[in-house]
UniProtKB/TrEMBL annotation:
Residue ranges of every copy of the PpiC domain listed in the record: 242-334
Reaction(s) catalysed by this chain's protein: [protein]-peptidylproline (omega=180) = [protein]-peptidylproline (omega=0)
Alphabetic keyword roster: Isomerase, Repeat, Rotamase, Signal
UniProt lineage: Bacteria, Bacillati, Bacillota, Clostridia, Eubacteriales
Cross-referenced NCBIfam families: PRK00059.1
Sequence ranges of the Cell wall-binding repeats: 47-66
EC class: isomerase
Protein name, per record: peptidylprolyl isomerase
EC number: 5.2.1.8
Domain of life: Bacteria
Species name: Clostridium gelidum
InterPro entries: Cell_wall/Cho-bd_repeat, PPIase_dom_sf, PPIase_PpiC, PPIase_PpiC_CS, PrsA_foldase, Trigger_fact/SurA_dom_sf
Amino acid sequence: MKKFKLTKLIASSLIVISVLGLNPIAASAEWKQSNTNWWYTEGSSWATGWKEIDGKWYYFNSDGYMAHDTEIDGYKLGSDGSWMQNTVLATVGDEKITKDDLNKVMNQYDNKLKQQYGNDYATNDSIKAQIEKIKKQQLDNLVIQKMLLKKATELKLNPSDAEINTQIDAEISKYKTQYSGQAQYESFLKQNGINEDELKNLIKSKIITNAVEKDIVKNVVVTDEEIKTYYDKNKDTIFTAGAGATVAHILVADEAKAKSLKAKLDAGADFATLAKENSTDPGSKDKGGNLGFVPYNTTKLITEFVSGFKNLKEGEVSEPVKSQYGYHLIKATGLKSAEVIPFDQVKDELKGALLQQKQGAAFNSKIEEWKTGLKVKYN
């Protein structure tokens, strides 16, 4: 039985509030001073960009030296280099979400961004938009988290203390197992700028918000009629597979050459022979121009090329097809008709995908509804 992946369905938009990014850090870290300034060691290297140390935020330049008495990314740094103020980014009723809150969440991306873009990633103009997008997403998550925590109390959805403590103990045990002992576990906490009590509070918040999320979507269902309607509407696109042809081509630089070769083919010349003698495509010329079986809905080849062969009959050769690479003569053989995946083979998978989609829509709708009542405000 053919397994069919519903890759074109939109994934659920339920927001999952992560606890922490699990990024190990070197155990040895300390302040050091030269004649001119301070820096902070991280194993055999030094800190760059923003770094939380002992509850305070500092900024280290690309050479490792601490910035002070200046402003970085809108944050004012004092003479000791620490961030001087904690700007409120959003409010949920009377509760505030500050830059400090956001920076603690963003700290989990620090190692990943360093590995990918280098220690000075914070000053890399090419990824500033990407970082800002992550910040916005994480700020939205913090707002939603506070909303869900408030609603949990209002709707009396908080799990019992016993249930929460049992789940917290299980999660802490998983972390300790993952980090192979107490020393690595403590390094993990230090890297994320928290202690174990703060980790437990994060896990507790996640347990409570999950309970509210489940309550929001508890009555969301997908009927058999909805599944069949979606299937019928998309049968010729999402649920159709296999249509295509075995394709060969001859690529030349100019149209006159292409037309000359087409005349020879029309007169009975062998396509594979002409491809080997004339094609400028190094990947296929020695194979007589053969590209193998190509689906009509492929996105791996340029549009002009696909359009040039998708309507050819068995054994037919196209007129010269122009693309950015030159002029193609394309031959199609072994034409295969589309195969529609039977409804019964995709029904269960489709039901799950549609349910996720409806749950995401219900969740987002409820969040927007609650924002007004909870007086959510972004600064």
